[in-house]
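Translate sequence into structure tokens.
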Amino acid sequence: MSSRRTWDSFEAMRDAAMEGDAQAQCYLGVCYQNGQGVAQDHQEAVKWLRRASDQGDPVAQCYLGVCYLNGAGVPQEFSEAARWLREAAEQGDPAAQFNLGVLYETGQGVPQNYAEAVKWYREAAERGYPAAQFNLGVYYESGQVVPQDFKEAVRWYRAAADQECAPAQCNMGLCYQTGRGVEQNQQEAVKWFIKAARQGDKTAQHNLGLHYAAHGAAPPHQPAAERDAASQAG
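Result follows.
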């Protein structure tokens, strides 16, 4: 994907959008979506995202697809979501590739197809998208669509976990706890469970509780700010 442009001010970006610059239109749409520099207005967001999407801007196409996915500024319509996500995914946008994978996995807007889901997760995972890396790891661990391969599962879990993806951190802990794809190591398991638990991952918190109950050790003190840290979306 080509690098994205920046503007010196909101006004300069808005002027460029008015003059038909697709990247500026995309950013203006995102500003309306998030209420940055302007009052939040989902319909106005869709208007600008659509203008950029019609010019082939992949980031705008991904955002527009997500608008249809969530029913933000437009009626919820999974087939339209899939259409725009595919346009962006085929241009290499990793967020679109991930979301398109989710649609294939759930059968929303497209026929359910796990092989297609894995294909798009892999595309996004190879571009460094953590939620896709986690999902791809799950497929390798379960042996669905792809051959079961615990080492490959761990490789993708670790890539996502290193980007603070809490479910991947939890699964890293489980792999170390059970010796799946890595040498069994309870200390490493606890280390990963703590990372995930601090992000609010319920499975990791439960596993930590079981570990401390079995080993009689008190959990380390966690500062409130860390304990309350929001988990990464995705």
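Note: The radius of gyration is 21 Å.
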